[in-house]
Amino acid sequence: MAEAKRTLGSSIEWICDNIKNEFKQALGGAPNSQFVIDPDGKIINASSWSNPTGLRETLAGLVGEVSPPTTVEELGLKQLPPPRLAATGVMVRPQMPGPMRAIVVKPQPSLSPYYVKLRAEIGSGFMQDGLGWMYIGFHLDPLLGVHWNNLAPPLQFRIKTPAGLCVASSQGKAPVLKEEADADPREFLLGLEWDSKILSRTEFADAELILEVDYYACHNDGWCRPFQQRYHIQLMPDRNGGSVRSRGRPGGGGFRNR
Amino acid sequence: MCYRILICMAGMAILSTVSFSQQPGRQPSVQFPQVTQLVGKQLPDIKVLDSQGNPMSTSDLRGRHTVLVFGCLT
To answer: Which long-range contacts (CB under 8 A, 24 or more apart) does A241-244 make?
Structure first.
């Protein structure tokens, strides 16, 4: 959070939700909502999407108009973007075969930070059809200042599935790039099939795929190290997973609503 | 009157996957009518963390007006 504050140049107070996102969910689950709370703890104004103009009007209603109002420029925020020493836009991104939705990903305990974060999605019709696509994307955490080391072996993953779930490729390897380093995500689309005669609907909700990933990461400070991390994936919608727009263009990070 | 502005960063956002920054004006494709229905209700008491990583309760926000904005950075 300190790094996030530094990046935004923010000097206002921050609080961090707990790992279950209980605060966000208790207040409606919207990714960019806005509230005004009175001294007794009562919610006196709420917007499902942050609205600075509406907020100013609300505050003016509480304490009166301020003239002249403070502008963002007058705050003098020094925004320092994370250093980007590696290339981006060099990896061709997959085209989604149709509407996808985020599913639950559980990072398993690790002695090292998760420099790479896994996002997983399945086709929105999978639950009905029992057949579809699973997207897995390994994204470098932009706050941790790392990039891929392409002089080392590329990222590799392995997936173990429970009985009744079959994945077309139980292992995969990222392409080898000419660039010595880059920061693009490593993404894969995998065919997935569910046999409900073997894995019932009741059991399906708790079924987990086990994914292990090996990769080499280099920090912008100079060190390079191999990492192995493990995730459990449930094919259940992740209500905190949001959605991704504008994915698929080269180098596009995608815009996600959380 | 004293105001306090807080940005609440979803915990899972720190552990999340896709590079993202909040972009004012970009509206979500999903609507959240349950948010505006909270007007008039009490702020729920939830255990969270302050910017130093210390445990705190959302009830600690009582005592003055607070502006609360949710967002995530990664």
So the answer is: A241/A101, A241/A102, A241/A103, A241/A104, A241/A119, A241/A121, A242/A31, A242/A102, A243/A101, A243/A102, A243/B29, A243/B30, A244/A100, A244/A121, A244/B18
Q: Where are the domains of chain B?
A: 1-24+46-74
pLDDT 10s digits, A139-174: 998 778 899 999 999 999 999 999 999 999 899 999
Residue ranges of domains in chain A, CATH in brackets: 2-75 (no CATH), 100-250 (2.60.40.1230)
pTM of the model: 0.70
The interface predicted TM-score of the complex, written ipTM, equals 0.73
- Best of B2, B16, B41, B48 to substitute, by most chain A Cβ atoms within 10 angstroms, is B16
CB contact B3 to A (< 8 Å): yes
Flag whether residue B57 sits within 8 Å of chain A, measured between CB atoms: no
Residue type, A150: N
A222-244 pLDDT, tens per residue?
A: 899 999 999 999 999 887 777 66
